[in-house]
TrEMBL record:
Extent of the signal sequence: 1-23
Keyword Cell membrane in record: no
Keywords from the named record: Lyase, Signal
Source organism (scientific name): Tulasnella calospora MUT 4182
Protein name per UniProt: Alginate lyase domain-containing protein
A molecular-function term among this protein's GO annotations: lyase activity
Gene3D superfamilies: Chondroitin AC/alginate lyase (1.50.10.100)
Keyword Lyase tagged: yes
Residue span, Alginate lyase domain: 71-356
């Protein structure tokens, strides 16, 4: 039932400032096509997407590094290395407590009952923010790896290695390789233990893993043999937890997006440690298991449409399936045409999702899925590109346009603004962007870059703002 989403909404509530800020995208789920990324030589239509990626890498980097030790709370073990998160959609209802004065936060967490409000974030849930920090780390790793390839500047790879070391392997700051305390149920009637739904908190591992595969393939000096060995060691322990622990197996049994992300996360880590046979078994279990009932003949994903935020959840599960297909690609198994019981694939799931209005949900969550299907299935009649062009006339400047190729830019003109946002058209004459006025260029990355770069004044502002949330 439970998922987590929209740090955007949450961060804005808690930390809004007056400064307008550009939100760099945090994609739901990605698996970089490793050979395509490593080989480079991309079509120059991706020029602005590349610039956007470099700006995003810088923006995320300025906020790091991140560690589970950053939080001021600990799990009930008192072990500072334990990952901890609270159940996101459970709200305190203190009507069971006969209090005559305000309760302290601690009393609320212990004495009040907690009630599920699907899709709505409990206001204080990110006081324990390992979830947000992991997401930020995974995005920083993802964008910095791409920026490294784009610019050839080793400092981006150094950042990637630093962020990975700090979160996973550094002796002082590492996370224990388990999720025993994820999405903990608080309250008088809560279990105070981790729930299987919390395994979803690390679904962004696919971004980290595919980035590491790229660094390995590029033989980056920053990705040292020591770090590689330490990360393999961590991953071996963690995947063992995923494959055997009861909490993890509960998530594996989930039939909706939770199950899908269990399989994408697990298979990706098996690939990282070189266990391709294990990865294949994991993927096969998905395609012969929960996948079969996830998409109906009309392309609906009924388990997602039933939720309080159906547009988000359809895009979310489709993103998981796309990632699963890409991991299979990596180990040399083309699964894109494997059908559900109803005879359809993720293509039909995205087709269906495209027909539904976003309502008050974030419309752009679906765009990377649409581009993925368009590039993977060649978009012969321009259905996906013309839909995207209608929804977002800046899409050729969005990061995903770099790796969702081949895919047309629909002839759209874009540029990257001083703050790093993708804009439609050509830059205003006196804009600081694109070299016409270098005075506000504070982007070290651009300065170091051997390739032509826009000058970005990327503001390091309040965190939290992510366009395409989880
Ligand atoms: C790539 O496109 C950009 C933007 O249109 C242009 O400035 C640049 O010269 C192009 N580079 C090449 C190698 O064509
Ligand atoms: C989070 O922890 C890392 C590792 O100790 C540290 O370098 C970083 O400054 C911390 N971040 C914050 C915001 O405290
Ligand atoms: C954790 O610390 C608290 C407060 O000091 C203590 O009451 C509790 O017994 C400790 N838990 C464990 C598992 O050591
Ligand atoms: C009881 O505590 C809750 C939580 O602090 C608070 O919202 C509520 O107003 C309190 N009740 C009274 C009568 O003070
Ligand atoms: C906790 O109590 C609330 C209010 O009575 C109820 O709605 C909820 O289902 C309970 N949760 C659990 C896990 O029992
Ligand atoms: C790691 O930390 C532990 C305890 O904090 C210490 O005993 C051990 O020697 C450290 N290992 C390394 C390689 O620094
Ligand atoms: C990626 O490149 C490697 C090395 O050239 C090759 O062995 C592998 O088959 C390629 N993978 C895919 C999915 O094309
Ligand atoms: C699906 O199968 C068709 C027919 O064999 C093939 O042309 C197409 O390339 C396949 N799609 C993908 C994404 O592999
Ligand atoms: C260049 O940008 C700076 C900072 O935005 C601005 O103050 C200045 O007027 C601009 N100069 C020109 C020639 O546009
Ligand atoms: C949670 O972490 C993210 C990423 O570091 C940050 O942007 C966000 O502001 C944090 N949320 C809160 C409530 O601190
Ligand atoms: C389209 C365009 O004008 N691109 C330019 C942006 O700025 C960089 C660096 O100043 C130039 O190299 C690009 O040609």
């Amino acid at each position: 039932m439970v998922s987590f989403k929209s740090l955007a909404t949450f961060g804005l509530t808690l930390a809004a400032t007056s400064a307008p800020v550009h939100a760099f995208s945090s994609y739901i789920s990605q698996w970089l096509p490793v050979n395509y990324t490593t080989e480079g030589g991309w079509d120059n239509r991706t020029f602005y997407a590349q610039q956007e990626i470099v700006a995003a890498a810088k923006w995320w980097s300025d906020q790091g590094p991140w560690s589970v030790l950053n939080k001021t709370f600990t799990a009930p073990t008192n072990n500072t290395h334990d990952y901890l998160s609270w159940a996101p959609y459970y709200w305190a209802d203190c009507s069971n407590v006969q209090n005559t004065t305000e309760l302290t936060p601690q009393q609320v967490w212990e004495e009040c009952n907690y009630v599920n409000r699907d899709g709505q974030f409990s206001p204080d849930v990110r006081l324990v923010n390992d979830t947000g920090n992991f997401q930020a780390m995974s995005d920083a790793v993802f964008y910095n790896t791409l920026a490294y390839k784009i610019t050839g500047d080793e400092s981006y790879a150094q950042k990637t290695a630093w962020f990975i070391d700090t979160w996973f392997t550094n002796n002082a700051t590492f996370m224990n390789p388990n999720l025993n305390w994820a999405q903990v149920m608080r309250g008088a009637n809560g279990s105070h233990g981790g729930q299987h739904t919390g395994v979803l908190d690390l679904h962004g591992m696919t971004k980290v893993v595919s980035a590491i595969l790229v660094l390995r393939a590029l033989a980056s000096p920053s990705w040292t043999p020591q770090l590689d060995a330490a990360m393999n060691d961590w991953s071996t322990q963690y995947v063992n937890w995923l494959l055997t622990n009861d909490i993890a197996l509960g998530e594996k049994a989930a039939t909706n997006n939770h199950g899908s992300f269990y399989f994408s996360q697990t298979a990706s880590i098996q690939v990282l440690i070189g266990d391709y046979a294990g990865a294949r078994t994991t993927l096969q279990e998905y395609f012969e298991g929960i996948y079969l009932n996830q998409i109906t003949a009309d392309g609906d994903q009924p388990l997602e449409s039933a939720r309080t935020r159906p547009y988000h959840y359809r895009a979310y599960n489709a993103a998981a399936i796309i990632t699963i297909n890409r991991i299979a690609d990596y180990i040399g198994w083309n699964t894109w045409n494997i059908t559900t019981k109803a005879g359809v694939t993720v293509k039909e799931a995205v087709d269906f999702a495209m027909t539904k209005p976003a309502g008050d949900e974030a419309a752009d969550e679906l765009y990377p899925d649409v581009a993925a299907i368009g590039s993977q299935f060649n978009d012969p009649d321009g259905k996906y590109s013309s839909w995207l062009a209608q929804q977002d006339n800046t899409y050729p400047g969005q990061a995903y346009f770099l790796w969702e190729q081949p895919f047309t830019d629909s002839g759209l003109k874009v540029y990257i603004s001083d703050s790093g946002s993708v804009e439609s058209g050509t830059p205003p004459a006196n804009s600081g962007s694109n070299g016409s006025n270098g005075s506000n260029n504070n982007n070290a990355a651009a300065a170091l870059s051997p390739s032509p770069m826009v000058s970005f004044a990327v503001a390091a502002l309040f965190g939290a703002v992510v366009a395409a949330a989880l």
